[in-house]
Each structure stands twice: as C-alpha cells, then as structure tokens.
Amino acid sequence: MSPRTPRSAAKLSTVHLGTGLALAGAVIVVVSYLRLLEYWSGYLVSLPTRFAWILLGSVLVGIVLHLRRTSARLGPVAFRVIVAFLLAAAALDFAGVWDISARQVYPTAAVAVGGVLVALTTLRPTGEMIVPGALLAGGFTFLLIFQTAFEPHRSPPEGVMMVFALVPLAIAITIVGTYRRMVTQALDRVLLQSTIELPSYGPGLGSTAQLTALDREVEELFARVADGTLTLPLEAEQARRAGELATELRAHLIAGHQQSWLVHAIAESAVLAGKLKVIDPQRLAAKLDRDRRDGLLSALWLLAVTDGDTNPRGTVEFQEEASPDGQITLVIIISVDGLTRLEIEPATWAGLDRVGRYGVSNTITGVRIAVRGNTPPSGPTRGHHEP
Amino acid sequence: MEPEDATNTEPFGFGLRAAPETEPPPARELPGRFLGRAPRRSPAHGLSEAENARFLWQRARLLSGTTLAFAIAAELTVLLAVFAPGAMSTTGLGIALALVMMHLAAHVMLASRPSLFRVLTVYGLGQAVMLVLWNDPTGITALPTSTAVIAIAGWGLGSVATILVSTRGDMLILLGLFLGTLAHLAVALHAIGHGMFAPLVLVLGSWAVSLAFGIWLNQTFPRIMRRIAGIGNAYLAERQGSEREAHRHRNARLLHDTALATLTLLAHSGRGVDEDALRAQADADRELLARLRKGEDVRPQASGDYLLTTATAAAPDQEVNQLRERFERAGLSVTVHGSAGISSYTESGQALLLALKEALENVRRHSGVSAADVTLSETESAVRVVVTDSGCGFDPGAAGADRLGMSESIIGRITSAGGTARVFSAPGAGTTIMLEVPREAPEIPAESGGAR
Fold this sequence. Notes:
heterodimer, A: 387 residues, alpha+beta, 5-stranded mixed β-sheet, 11 helices, B: 452 residues, Heat Shock Protein 90, 3 domains, 8% strand, kinase activity (chain B)
C-alpha cells in the first residue's frame, strides 16, 4: 500500500513542481545579478555586498552539488545550514546597502536570496519555508522603514526590489502548500475509487493480511506437532497459544462477513476515516450496485473533504422502508454536523443523483440528507464475480 | 501518446474558456472559473467528471490568485511612489490614484472570472496609469515616478502572463501585450531621460517570473493527475490481487474448520486423543495450509475426511446424503426430499451445506425431537433447502443464545454467499428454516475480476 503514504505523495508533487519553481527562482537571481552589474559599472558596490555575493555564489554551488549527490533531496539539517548561509548573505547585503545609503543603490544579494528560497520551496515542508521567508521580509521592512526616514525618495525603488524578493516567494509557498493538499486529496479519492470494486461484504485488506499471517503460524504449529518436535500432550504454554490461535482464527472467519464494503472504504480513506460512521445493522449497503456505490462514495467524500475551514463529522444510516403496495425502498440518511448547506460542494448533488432521489434539510448543528433508492436490485451485488 | 497541443485546433483559440466541449462543467459552477486547455484525456480515470472539475477549479483559482497577488504588490509599490514628497502634481496624483484603483478593480474582476475582455481592460488601464505617471510635469525626472512606471509595466501588466499561457493563441496575445508594454516603456523612459538598462531588466524579470508560474501550474496539473490515476490503477490491481487472495482463504473455509478442530484439540493439550492420530491430522492440516499459502485452491470434502480437490466432483447431493448419514449416527433421523444438485464445489453450495449442517445440529440439540425433514428444490436462478422439525420451537424475535448461534452460523453464512435465510418458528410449533442461495457456475475461476 505504498502509494498511500504521505511521503510518497509529497514526493510525487515535488518531482513535478520542482523545475518550474527553480526556473522562476533563477529569473529572480539573474535579475538581481544584472542589477549588481549595473551598480558595479558605477563603482557603487560596497565591500559587505561583495562579500554577500561571494557567500551567495558559494552557497548556490554548494546547493547544486548537494542536490546532485542526493538526487534532489534536501534533509532538515542541510536545509538549516543553507538557510543560515543565505540569511547571512542577505544581512551582509543589507549592511552594504546601508553603508552607502545616500546613493541610488538597492539590495541585490538579498533579493537573490528570495529567489533561491523560491527554488527550494518544493524540497521542504511548507511550514519550514515560512521562517526564512518571514526573516527576509523582516530585513526588507526594516531597511524600507529606516532608510525612508533618511531618504524618502529611496523607498519606491526599494519597494520594487522587495516585491521581487518576497512576493514570488510568498506565492510559491502558498501554491506549493495548496498543491500538496490537492495532490493528497486527489490521491485519496483515486485510491478510494478502487473500494467500489470490493465484494459487498469482505474482510478488508488488513484483515486478509492478518488471516494469512495467522494461517502461517498455525501451519508452523502443526508442522512441529506432526514432526514430533513438540511432545503430546502439549505443554501449558503451547496449549494456551493453540487456544489463542483458534480464537483468533474463529474471530476472523466470522468477522469478515460483518462489515460491508462501505465500512472498509471509509476506514481506508484518509479523508473519510474517523469522520463518518456507518449505521447499517442489516448491511443494506451491500444492495447498492457499482454505479450507486460510486455516486454515494463520491458524495460522502465531497461532504467530508475540507481545506481546513470546516470540520464535518456525521453518520450514514441505512434503512428499508416498505410502501403500502409492498415495494421496498432503500433509504440512506446522511447526517453531517459542522457543515452548512451552502458549504456543500455542488458536485456532491451529482453523486447523490446517481444513488436516488434525495431531500436536504437543515438541522441545528448541520445538514441531513435523505436519499431514497427506489428499486434496489434483488440480492446483494457481488463485484467480485464480474468477469 | 499524441502531443498535448493536438487538441488546440484553432490557431487563436483563446484559452480562457469554460471547460472543454466534451466535458461540460457541472451546472452550478461558474464556467469562467475553468481556465486553460483541458487535458487531452481525462486526467484521472478514477474520478468522476464533477470531481475532476473540482480539481481543475482549484487550479484555476491558484492561477488567478497568483495574478492578483502580483498585481496587488505592483499597486502598493505605485502608491508608495506617488505619495513620496514632491513626486507628482496634485492633479496628476488625483488622476493617478483614480486610475490605480480602477486598475486594481479590473484585476479583482479578472481574478474572479477571467475573460479576454477583462485581460484587455486590465492592460488598457495599466497603460493609462503609465501615461499619467510619466506625463506629470513634476515627476518627469523624479526617481519615484520612474519606479512606479516600472512597477506597473512589470508586475501590474506582466502578472497577466500567469493566466495567458494555456494555448498558443494566448501566448501570441501575450507576446503582443509584452511588446506593446516594452514600446511604451521605451517612450516613457526616453521622455523622462532615465537609463534603459535597469528598467528593462526589472520589467523583463517580472514578466518572466509570472510566465514561469503560469506555465508551471498549467503543465504540472494534468501530468500529476495522470500519474495519480496511474497510481490508482496500480492500487486497484493490487487490491484485486488481495481480494482474490481473500477469496481463496474464504473458499478454504472448510479447511479452516478442520484446522480449528485440530487447534482446539491441541489447546486442550491433546489429551484423550490418540497421539499418532493427532499427529497425522496435524500433518494433513499443515500440508493443506501450506498448499493454500502457495496459491493452490484447497478444498477438503465437507463430510469430514481431509481430501484435496480433485477434478471429479462428488455426485450431486451426495454430500447432503453424507450429512444425513452423519446425523443419523448421532441419533437424528433425517428424511431428504427432492434434489437440488448441491455440491461443495461452488461457493454458495459450500455455504448451503455448512448452514444445513448447523440447522440440523440445532434441531438435534434444541428441538427435543429426533426427526427432521430436509426438502431440496432448485429453480433456474436459485437453490433452496428447507429444514423442518416438529419440535418445541422458539420465539425468533426474542434474543437468546440459540438465536445468536443461528444468526452467525446459518444466516451469516448464507447472506455472505449472496443468499437469504429465513426462520419461521413459535414456541411449541416447531421450526422451519428456509435457505436459498443463487445458482452459480461450478467453479469460481481464480482470475475473476482481474486487472482491467
């Protein structure tokens, strides 16, 4: 089940996100460098700024060498070292600009540091990028406020350079964060999709693995009994273990049938797990065919998925209703708390449409959706047996 | 795979359209929110169109949000510049402020619902801001004014590059806008008497960064969704493999029943059982478990002895008769009526036999009578077994140990095989248990439900 781990999800996004941001970062570094050359031709580059660029150049070479060696992976320690050097370069540059504040010279290396950070955004968790970004922003703000006090006309060009250093960085951090969340969600949804192919009842993936392990242990015990390694009657300890194995085996053989595909689906999804509870004593969920399962699961997922602004929790209850003419209707009642009707994504209704007719009502704490599937197919469908 | 550009048939297909013609957006979405060319294939096969649209919409929001963020930064820089002391004449300042606000408003509208018209509005207003800035009599040589011109020409106008990258037509329009901006910048700088180098670098840089963000967001998305779909397919195949495995283990239920019996004997230290017999049984069970582990379909016969599945199936209903004989030895006289072709070589047949065994066991233990009737019948679609006794009966509605045992071992087995089990009984009125399972092919092929 390796694709489900957050690590591989993050890597998935990183691989594809990396190059584009590196390009944007490189543009910022080049712009800063061209500005430096401009000042250089006017003999306006102070000593600290020169040191800042030397330091920045060495760090850049170091980053490239490091990333080539680790195939584009950046550990937390390496990242902290790089950030420390980058911020030192920015500080030197600020000092250098301060030194000749009367002339028309503005930060260059500090801007380039912003560009380097943009390029690094995809390599570290979003939270870690915020700290260096904030420190750099603090440096620029300090410079802007205090230099403006001496030389008001300096502030606008300072502002332009600040935009170059900080705005792309802020946007990159935001986008990478959003993108990672989107990818995780899309991955969760795609993996969840495979659960509609489950048999109506089933032991679930984890349970199967446990049963296999259990069979293995029983087999070993039998082998030791058969070849005489263990004396008969068994010693108390081994007899106890045999009893335990029998109990576990029995539990597995019974438990597999007590849960429907929906329970397994919810347990396996990072978005749904813990948020939705299934109340289905008669295991009516098994009566849904593949298309209805898909619609229901899609709707439930959209109800539960959140970008952190809501905290939906609720239940899915299955009931059967007999009409006077003997027609049996499957009724699914979805109650979700912590969500208003307006916050429900429109695509949810498209999913419910595929399950049956539905009605929505507001409750004090959330919404209640009743879905009626008019003609549940006779007998549970068994996706497993389809060719 | 064909190149993605193959979809772009119109040379000037303006990319700011709704969704692709083949995949209409869901009714409640604003069509204009969908930016960019749709990927040639549905990006994630596992996703419904609506959910797919949801992810496309999120990307569109990121694109327009990026544009707006750059634009806001530009307007702030301009405000910083025009309010610098002595930067502009009062009239110029008034006009500039009004235009800057309009420009910002146009950007907000562009972000909320992108269209070519709105892009051109943003562009036109930006050019107007530039014009006012460099034509102001006070500001001609002032540093703040030239900075403001650079900010508008760079981020204020260049930010549209983020959303104008989805088709070649868009890119051509973007190129036109860029050249127009450069020309205006050159005229303005010449008029102010400002050097060309620095402004050119800054403006070019702004457009390049916006463009990089746009191209990156635009191209990464379909690619990443396709990869996610690939992972989903791989996972589905893996799951189907696990399901087959689970199915095999469930098929081996009878094996587990015998293994359980052996284990239970061992749990009592194997006392009271012939030692050699127990060892032989353990060895037989071990071998079956080993075969199961190695992927064989192991099916010992229902009626006791440990035999492997062979190609020749037992005669129809032979196993029912074996059951009958077994219960007669235990003191319950069973009369079998009719025939139904039940055999343990189908999953449902296996479940039916086990449930029948449990039902007869219930009669033997609890009914208080020593005779039971078993009626077998079959239709085209189902196989039915009815077990009747004239014993003491019970109240099916009351919760009791009997009933719990019955629901697990009888009803549970039958429903898991896709059938139905019904119990009719009342205290003193005997009990009838009706078991019905759907008919199915004699053998469940192991590769059923393989990867599609």
